[in-house]
Amino acid sequence: MTLWQKSRYVFAIIAQGVGIVWLMMAIYFIAKYYRDTENPLRHEYWFAVWIGIIYSTGFCLSSALLAVTVKNAIPRVAFRLLTVPALIIGLLLLIIYLGSMAYGIMVRT
After folding, report:
1. Angle, CA of 47, 50 and 54, to the nearest 5°
2. Is 19 exposed, middle or buried (0-12, 13-18, 19+ CB in 10 A)?
3. H or E element: which one contains 32?
4. In whole angstroms, how far apart are CA 78 and each of 14, 24, 26, 64, 68?
């Protein structure tokens, strides 16, 4: 494995960690939104949720792309550890996005 491949692998691991931190922040603010039912400004939490989801998706998918570029040089287990969380986070993004759209439609009608 060349130095360039090793550095991409290290950046992929760092990006995965940063993406998971952003995802945890989004999950925290979702929980905070549903717990603070008496707070009239609780809808402001959705802004933090969207920022967390957008950044976590970006970091985790870029981590998966970096892992693909060094796929032949890294073990299969490490490749799965970088790509599977990115796919799960992408699926969570889709579920939260569609759920918030459905909630908005239900509230308006």
Report:
1. 145
2. buried
3. helix 3-35
4. 13, 22, 26, 11, 11
**Three-class secondary structure of residue 75 per DSSP:** coil
- Rounded to whole angstroms, the Cα distance separating 45 from 37 reads 12
**Beta strand extents in 1-109 (DSSP E only):** none
- Type of residue at 64: A
Count how many residues are written for the chain: 109
Contact 60, 21 (CB under 8 A): no
pTM score, two decimals?
0.64
Q: d(Cα 6, Cα 74) in Å, to the nearest integer?
A: 9
pLDDT tens per residue, range 64-100: 777 776 666 666 666 667 677 777 777 777 777 777 6
